[in-house]
Amino acid sequence: MGKRILLVEDNEKFRRLTKLTLLKAGYDVIEAETGDEALQKMDSEQVDLVLLDILLPDTTGLKLLEKWKPLFPNTSFIMCTAYGDIEDAVKAMKIGAFDYLSKPIRADELKVVIERALGYKELQRENKQLKAAVKEKFNLHGMIGSSEKMQEVYSLIQRVAPQDVTILLGGESGTGKSRCAYAIHLESNRCNAPFIKVNCAAIPPNLLESELFGYEKGAFTGAISSQEGKCAAADGGTLFLDEIGEIPLDLQAKLLQFTQDKTFTPLGSTKEISSDVRIITATNRNLWEMVQSGDFREDLYYRLNIIGIHMPPLRERREDVPDLIDQFMQEASVEQKRPYRISKELLVKLVEYPWPGNIRELENAIARATVLSMDGNLLLKDFPLEVMTYFSQSIVETKEGEEVPSINWDEDFSLTEHLEQVEVSVIEEALKNENGNQARAAEALGISRQGLLYKIKKYNIQVD
């Protein structure tokens, strides 16, 4: 079946001739004489393009276009106008019509405009698919970020995940170590087996051994039945030990044995049990300093740190902040069933904020802002106090009734282009503040002079 066109026209002669032209061109045509009939057809039929007359007996094409445009984003609209309706046709273009044709309409002109409109929609669809593919490339199993540092992390994950070696994830709290561990599991040959997580900091030291290795009935007071531990539960899969630096020294020896030969003995038992697991650990502490101070076994450190992956803090990959904000706003939109928008001015400020709590802090801040937002437009006053007070000069909030300058998160939005504009603006401001001194500007920006020179050349920035 060819593309389906809805022809909305009350002039019977014009409608009949136009339909004949479209049928000869291979299109499937449905007709409507009035606005009410057209509304019924749009609700019940799958329509690729609408040929819409400006003047109808019961309404106007402009009113229909205003109603349909947001409801049918994949449908193209072409207005059919009489000579005196050109002003209305221009209004229709502003609303979102692809083009307009003045009556009498030549058959060849009609076919060309329709082909262009449908071709443009197909191009938009392909572009959207391409952007989705690019976004998928820059996201790995829930890990979000297109920055160079995150690309290095993705590359390392994909190289080491198939190798059955222990991995130590380092980095500040909130940088996404748990998601990284799960991504490694999904990229590994164990992806269909269990992924078991143990937060070593959340379990009292005297209970951590039984949590890991399990226990037999009667092993201690209250052990009224045998209990399988996490090491056994993860058999065939991945055991993720978060906050590994919190494990007490006496338990470290037993964990070392498990990492070496994959065997352990449950509390209260004399029977040794085997469990084939891949061990991933994570910490926000400096384990090597703990080794030097005697708080962590050196032999266990080397067993766990066969492969080390460092998760960069958010302040070192600021270009990922808009993508993360977009993701968290989308999640909030689904959960709270209303859309959210953010102004360009506020987005720039949020990129500048250092986010000491990293991704976790950003996620919580967006969650708070979406809950407190009155109309779906996020404002600085909706964010936590530490974010608001960070800025010496607050953002001028939009007054009631004013239009909120915002990013249009549709298929035409380019995160790369937007971030490049922000980066150029910040570099130019730094150079201006330092009177063109590139060394001082680089220091103010927190990058090397070579890095600044590269960006000046990349963006063709003029330096006075």
What does this protein structure show overall?
With 464 residues, the chain is of the alpha/beta class. The protein has 4 domains: 4-134, 3-Layer(aba) Sandwich (Rossmann fold), CATH 3.40.50; 146-312, P-loop containing nucleotide triphosphate hydrolases (Rossmann fold), CATH 3.40.50; 316-402, Helicase, Ruva Protein, domain 3 (Orthogonal Bundle); 417-458, Arc Repressor Mutant, subunit A (Orthogonal Bundle). The chain is 48% helix and 13% strand. It has helices at residues 12-24, 35-44, 61-71, 86-95, 107-137, 148-160, 177-187, 205-213, 230-233, 249-261, 287-293, 298-304, 321-336, 344-352, 358-372, 385-390, 415-433, 438-445, 449-458; strands at 4-8, 28-32, 49-53, 76-81, 99-102, 139-140, 143-144, 167-170, 195-199, 238-242, 263-264, 273-274, 278-283, 307-310, 341-342, 377-378. A 5-stranded parallel β-sheet has the order 2-1-3-4-5, sandwiched between helices. Strands 9-10-13-8-14 form a 5-stranded parallel β-sheet. The chain is elongated. The termini are far apart.
